[in-house]
Amino acid sequence: MLKRLKEYRGIILTIAIFAAVIISSVNGIVAVQEQNSAKQLNLVQQAAYRAAATCYATEGFYPGEIDYLKEHYGLSWDENRYFIRYNAFASNILPEIYVVDKGDE
Known about the structure:
Order of helices and strands: HHEE
Mean pLDDT: 88
Structural class: mainly alpha
Strand order of the largest sheet: 1-2
Radius of gyration: 25 Å
């Protein structure tokens, strides 16, 4: 039995190292995907704020709805992936803009 274990020790060690490399690679890929997802969400939010600020600078008011920014200022985003909550309190106060990844809900 001990002799047989010694024979397979190299194979077992190789399989263990290979499994560790695979697990580490998968964890690394997942971490990169999460970082990219957070950056994309942040970019959508920045674009919405930028469009609202441009509207205010150009027209003197913040629009009451996000659709106004889509129609007049070219704001666009992947609506299948992100939901934008646009809360405009008054036309002279910067609205609250929240972007949610629909996959995280």
